[in-house]
Amino acid sequence: MPELPETETIARDLHAMLSGARITGAAVQKGDVLRSVTPDEFMSRLPGTIIVRAWRRAKLIIVELDSGDSLVVQPRFTGALLVERTPDDISARDRNYIALSMRLHDGRVLHYRDIRRLGTVALLSADALASALAPLGPEPLDLALTAERFSGSLRTSRQAIKKVLMDQRVVAGIGNIYANEACWMAGIDPSRAADSITAGEAATLLDSVRGVLQASIALRGTSFRDYVDARGGRGGFVPFLQAYGRGGAPCGRCATPLVDSSAIDGRTTVFCWRCQR
Ligand SMILES: [Zn+2]
To answer: Of the CATH numbers 3.40.50.2000, 1.10.8.50, 3.30.70.20, 3.30.10.20, which one belongs to the domain with range 147-271?
Structure first.
């Protein structure tokens, strides 16, 4: 499931490829991915608009149009935005899973494809977008999120620190992969109650969150299963994962075999019982 580094990669690519492009037509192949608009509204509100910019908030990709509307894409497990320049750009398999298509003035087509169709695409006015984003917590890479503020928000929860890291109201954009990685990097047991994390540990944890997210963004994210970027490429961060997907493998710090557990919220947690405390 794309988290912050993957959605950031997609948004940056889309911005570079699409800003300034005019949408000349829209088609709906599988309308159940749409939220807040009917297929007819989707097809009538898009043509004639110009893509102003693409950006990311939390795990959402936001494509802003000069009409004031924004396409808000939540890829979840298998959603992807693909830009077709020539028919060869889209594999036969991907083509079967195209849910929405937007034709651009220069002949390119922006597709939303989703294999399991658990992702969503909404078309929101500026006011509706502001309301949709309002519940989200701070961006972890935004320096306005100080260690003090982060520590303060952890102290309000008795839930497992790993689960709190994944709570989008506390800090936005982190999912299971980077919560595992950040806890490992900070040497913090992911099952500890968030309110037991000291101010010093919170500062270390925030540094770890930022470190792993930035390292992954630099490599265009982590590809497991179906995540691909807007060019159909895969992220390069998998070989650098220290915890996620490495249950039973030796800890990169102390060589103790990592433990694989699903005790926290039923999600896969991988940690080192010896050096994460
Ligand atoms: Zn260890």
So the answer is: 1.10.8.50
